[in-house]
Specification:
The complex is a heterodimer of chains A (120) and B (419).
Chain A lengths: L1 E6 L8 E7 L2 E6 L4 H12 L2 E2 L2 E7 L5 E6 L3 E2 L3 H9 L2 E3 L7 E3 L9 E3 L6
Parallel strand pairs in A: 5-8
Antiparallel strand pairs in A: 1-2, 2-3, 4-7, 5-6, 6-10, 9-10
Chain B lengths: L1 E10 L3 H12 L5 E4 L15 E3 L8 E2 H14 L3 E3 L2 E8 L2 E6 L3 E12 L3 E3 L2 H4 L9 E3 H9 L8 E5 L3 H12 L3 E6 L9 H8 L6 E2 L2 E8 L3 E8 L12 E4 L2 E4 L3 E3 L2 H5 L24 E3 L10 H20 L7 E7 L3 E5 L2 E4 L5 E8 L6 E7 L2 E8 L8 E6 L8 E7 L2
Parallel strand pairs in B: 1-2, 1-8, 2-5, 8-19, 10-17, 11-12, 11-17, 12-13, 20-27
Antiparallel strand pairs in B: 3-4, 6-7, 7-8, 9-18, 14-15, 15-16, 20-22, 21-23, 23-26, 24-25, 24-27
The chains are: A alpha+beta (120), B alpha/beta (419).
């Protein structure tokens, strides 16, 4: 049996939740003060996901960088692979906020989008 | 000197200035002017490319630039004027501002009311007086954030971060993603300075150790920083020599607090509060100078941009009313006092007027704790109470009071722990 301690980030309460599991099968979830904590802990145990934010190079604009994020959370385990692709990317202004910069980032099925506009 | 006239002038186009501008417009100010020394709006949000903004204001998670863009777009739709690349050099009165513009030279602004929204800046090594050599490679977390996120300059490969403030933790993640090794986040207090979610997503996710009750005792290296000595501290925050250890690094980031930027405020003859380091304001965000309002981090350092927006809308609304001559006159002024368990409260005063309203008082507790009752008293009468499950000095709390409950005595806010 394995135990995993998870700090809930759903609200500022920050419950310390313990997930007990047999392999990938969850046996118990304890320490959460609300239902949302249980869902969070379950997701964190099985496949933790995060919105990845970074920047890509942009040419033809006043500033050298364009801030970007994944449109939806992506698995944490994919961060390294995602960053490799992001670092190798250069785009050309003009760029509109929320424009797709990379389709299906690193096979996650999630697009990378611009989080601000860059005029020429 | 070129002269500009407007109804409401706002100094700073960050989250505070943008929200104040929109609100001033919405409440009847025809000509709203926002002045900023940067070349675009957003202030610090431009470099805060991480998510976590908008959760309470927009009920969705956004990055800093996206949060700023929503406000800016509305400002443009409303015809709010911006004067960029322009540094305000003097606030002569609530109705007269002097600034220096790259394009237009010296400019005098005549306005019906003014709003201070200059934000804050970071505490530096000089503020902390850390002993040791003076090598390069020591940055405030926000400076590193600007270099990495806006200027495409990576600051180092092997990093120690002093202070567990939010910007420091966010930079720990950012530098890790960019390939640097963050060796430790060192915090002198026995508890985290920033938000818990940032510890989880910025430190734990990347296996970065958080060393509470520790501090940097010496900085080593000549041309470039080569390492730091860190040590555990005792109850008096004094380093315990026997616990000192060396960590090699080529970069030290400081995330050790923010100081409201109040040179203009002081220049206008307004003193700042000893705890918040900002001007004292009433519930309408009016300073002691009639017609001069202040909002956001220039008043007190907030942990969430969302709170800044809400507070700044009040400043915008009342500044518009002042400019129009419709701001209800204060018949009396009550002090709002930080009582037991509370470090400070903002606003610092309540202006007693004929306007019946709910006043939201923001405050920080002195110590972290679990179940706590937050109370507001007017004289001896309890006028509001609220139970919360958890309090932390790093996370601002609030309590609402009703003007009709005020007794005419000072208002005291307390946080009482429940055993």
């Amino acid at each position: 049996m394995t135990r995993k301690n998870i700090i809930c980030t759903v609200c500022p309460m920050g419950c310390n939740i313990t997930v007990k599991a047999d392999g990938s099968e969850i046996i118990s979830i304890e320490g959460n003060e609300c239902k949302r904590g249980e869902i969070y802990a379950r997701d964190e145990f099985t496949c933790p996901t995060r919105t990845l934010t970074s920047s890509v190079l942009v040419t033809n604009a006043k500033e050298p960088l364009l801030p970007v994020r994944t449109e939806k959370p992506v698995p944490k385990a994919k961060f390294g692979e995602c960053m490799e692709i992001i670092k190798a990317t250069t785009v050309h202004a003009p760029i509109k906020i929320h424009q797709v910069i990379i389709h299906d980032l690193a096979g996650t099925g999630v697009n990378l989008i611009a989080t601000c506009s860059r005029d020429v | 000197m070129r002269e500009i006239k407007c109804d409401v002038a706002i100094i700073g186009a960050g989250p505070a200035g943008l929200a104040a501008a929109l609100s001033a417009k919405e409440h009847g100010a025809k000509d709203v002017l926002v002045i900023d020394r940067d070349t675009d709006s957003g202030g610090i949000l431009q470099q805060c490319i991480h998510a976590g903004f908008g959760l309470s204001y927009f009920h969705k998670e956004m990055t800093g630039p996206e949060y700023a863009a929503v406000f800016r777009e509305k400002c443009d739709q409303e015809g709010i004027r911006f004067l960029f690349d322009t540094m305000v050099t003097e606030v002569r009165s609530a109705r007269e501002i002097i600034c220096s513009s790259t394009e237009q030279g010296l400019v005098k602004v005549y306005t019906g009311a003014s709003i201070l929204a200059m934000g804050c800046r970071e505490r530096t090594r000089q503020n902390l007086r850390i002993p040791g050599t003076r090598p390069s490679g020591i940055f405030t977390a926000g400076t590193a954030q600007r270099l990495i996120n806006r200027q495409n300059e990576m600051v180092g490969k092997s990093v120690v971060i002093l202070g567990s403030g939010d910007i420091g933790m966010i930079m720990a993640r950012r530098m890790s993603l960019e390939g640097a090794k963050v060796k430790a986040v060192v915090e002198i207090m026995p508890y985290l300075a920033g938000l818990t979610r940032n510890k989880v997503q910025c430190l734990d996710d990347f296996g970065i150790p958080l060393m509470l009750s520790h501090t940097v005792t010496r900085i080593m290296g000549h041309k470039r920083i080569e390492g730091v000595y860190i040590a555990e501290v005792d109850d008096q925050k004094q380093p315990i020599p026997s616990t000192e250890e060396y960590i090699s690094c080529d970069t030290l980031l400081l995330s050790v607090g923010l100081i409201p930027e109040n040179e203009l405020t002081k220049g206008a003859g307004i003193s700042t509060n000893a705890v918040t380091n900002g001007p004292e304001v009433d519930q309408r965000m009016q300073t002691v100078m009639p017609g001069l309002f202040a909002c956001g981090n220039v008043v007190h350092v907030n942990d969430l941009a969302d709170n800044v927006s809400i507070e700044s809308e009040l400043a915008g609304k009342y500044a518009a009313m002042y400019a129009a001559g419709t701001l209800p006159e204060a018949k009396a002024q009550l002090n709002v006092i930080a009582g037991e368990g509370v470090r400070y409260v903002c606003p610092h005063h309540v202006a007693v007027t004929d306007e019946e309203a709910v006043i939201r008082l923001y405050f920080r507790v002195s110590e972290p704790g679990r179940k706590t009752i937050l109370k507001a008293r007017s004289g001896k009468k309890e006028i509001a109470a609220r139970e919360v499950r958890r309090v932390s000095p790093g996370e601002m709390d609030h309590i609402d009071i009703h003007t009709q409950d005020l007794t005419g005595d000072d208002v005291v806010i307390c946080a009482e722990g429940v055993k």
